[in-house]
Design a protein that fits this description.
Elements (H helix, E strand, L loop, with lengths): L1 H6 L7 H12 L4 H8 L3 H13 L3 E4 L8 E4 L5 E7 L3 E7 L5 E8 L7 H18 L7 E8 L3 E2 L4 E2 L13 H9 L3 E5 H12 L1 H5 L6 E6 L3 E7 L2 E2 L30 H5 L1 H14 L3 H8 L6 H9 L3 H25 L3 E5 L7 H14 L2 H4 L3 E4 L7 H13 L2 H11 L1
Parallel strand pairs: 3-6, 6-9, 10-13, 13-14
Antiparallel strand pairs: 1-2, 3-4, 4-5, 7-8, 10-11, 11-12
Helix pairs in contact: 2-4, 2-17, 3-4, 5-6, 7-16, 10-11, 10-13, 12-13, 13-14
The structure holds zinc ion.
Length: about 425
């Protein structure tokens, strides 16, 4: 099919989608830019642009002082709902067709204690509230996306063997939400969704661009990676690609809840770090943490970072060893995958710049010079890791795929 499309650049079913994608990725654009970027005839571009304008998916944008019109996505022609579910919090955002947040809601949840129906019910209630307060009707809802802290079978929209979510294994999340919203629903792993947010709105935009390749690492209680290859999420055969938390660190014997020894998550994840910090406070090895614990401060990554900044040697050691273990595994990925960017996100980034620096140093030390040349390792700057924004982008990528834009146009005409 793909071959056919390539041989027939004016293929009717996918051409509007191709044009729309170019404008989504790089707009606002002049019609001439679209002709140049697509390789399509000027008359073809012009005909489809007119159709996309008439059904309301595109709008004209006249630059200040300019005479000629530019074309951009009609961001207010509809909206999407992005849901980010964490172990202890739920975030729901109403977004426009460029994945900009119109309004959002959040609340604490417990995936250990609450059933999927309870948690998803809260998400649905938030979405309804947001639609209502923005004065939007359900007919303008293009789709709903959700990121789950679990491996996900993407084709079926179900979580698979989630480690700490009793009752969620193979729970039909997509069909539950589709029944509530009567629109397309897309379910993915939280890390993949965060990677999409970095691609379009975060670290990747200035470095590799929307068609680039990079790795997003979420370092929190768990550790996982999202792989973006030429602008697309790589999910692997079953959706398990990027699950780096259970890759073993050579020579480490720490027992992991998965039953293996030396897993990255068991050695360098948030739970392991906080347990070590507590032990260091209890034994007095860290005078800073001992004093903070005695004063009633909860042990958290930010506190360990503060201790490290104040010169507490044990805190410095904790930060550096966690970063070094993560960097050690990432170096293997760099040798294999050769990305030009690694974005680090998640709760452990609260450990500060020293943590990122130790990841970077460990990657450079352990990867081959060619693979590491020009590699950028940086911390995510997106609030909350971009979970709801990424979930919105997941929906937009699907409903605005090459094939679907043509269908959408026929529906709107
Ligand atoms: Zn493990």
């Amino acid at each position: 099919m793909l071959e056919l499309e390539e041989k027939d650049p004016a293929n009717q079913s996918t051409t509007p989608g191709r044009i729309f994608k170019i404008i989504r990725d790089s707009g606002p654009l002049y019609a001439n830019d679209i002709v140049r970027r697509s390789g399509l005839a000027k008359s073809t571009v012009s005909a489809y642009v007119d159709k996309l304008l008439s059904v309301g998916l595109l709008r004209e944008d006249i630059p200040e002082g300019g005479k000629r019109r530019k074309l951009k996505v009609a961001e207010s022609a509809g909206y999407v709902v992005g849901i980010a579910l964490g172990q202890s919090h739920l975030d729901v955002a109403l977004c426009d067709l460029e994945a900009e947040t119109i309004d959002s809601r959040c609340c604490p949840v417990s995936l250990l204690r609450e059933s999927p129906e309870e948690v998803l019910g809260k998400a649905v209630a938030f979405a309804r509230e947001l639609e209502e307060s923005a004065g939007l009707g359900p007919q303008a809802l293009f789709g709903v996306g959700i990121g789950l802290p679990s491996p996900v079978d993407y084709a079926n929209g179900v979580p698979v063997n989630p480690p700490v979510m009793p009752g969620w294994d193979r729970y039909p999340v997509a069909s539950f939400l589709a029944q509530e919203f009567t629109c397309p629903v897309f379910v993915d792993n939280d890390v993949n969704v965060m990677a999409l947010a970095e691609r379009d709105k975060g670290a990747a935009t200035g470095i590799v661009g929307r068609r680039g390749s990079f790795i997003l690492v979420k370092a929190g209680t768990g550790i996982g990676a999202g792989l973006v290859i030429d602008g697309e999420i790589y999910r692997g055969a079953k959706g398990a690609a990027g699950d780096i938390g259970h890759i073993g660190i050579d020579g480490d014997e720490t027992l992991c809840p998965c039953g293996n020894r030396g897993c990255l998550e068991a050695v360098a994840g948030g739970r392991a770090l906080l347990a070590r910090a507590e032990a260091a406070a209890g034994s007095g090895r860290s005078p800073f943490l001992a004093a903070e614990l005695a004063a009633g401060s909860p042990i958290a990554p930010a506190l360990v970072a503060k201790g490290a900044a104040s010169g507490d040697e044990e805190c410095i050691r904790l930060v550096i060893s966690s970063g070094a273990s993560i960097g050690d595994i990432l170096a293997k990925l760099v040798n294999f995958f050769n990305p030009s960017l690694i974005v680090v996100s998640g709760g452990l980034t609260g450990l500060g710049e020293r943590f990122i620096a130790s990841i970077r140093e460990s990657i450079y030390r352990r990867s081959t010079p060619l693979a590491a040349a020009d590699l950028v390792v940086k911390k995510s700057a997106l609030p909350g890791g971009g979970g709801t924004t990424g979930a919105a982008i997941l929906v937009l990528d699907e409903v605005f795929s090459h094939r679907n834009v043509g269908r959408l146009m026929r529906g709107l005409a």
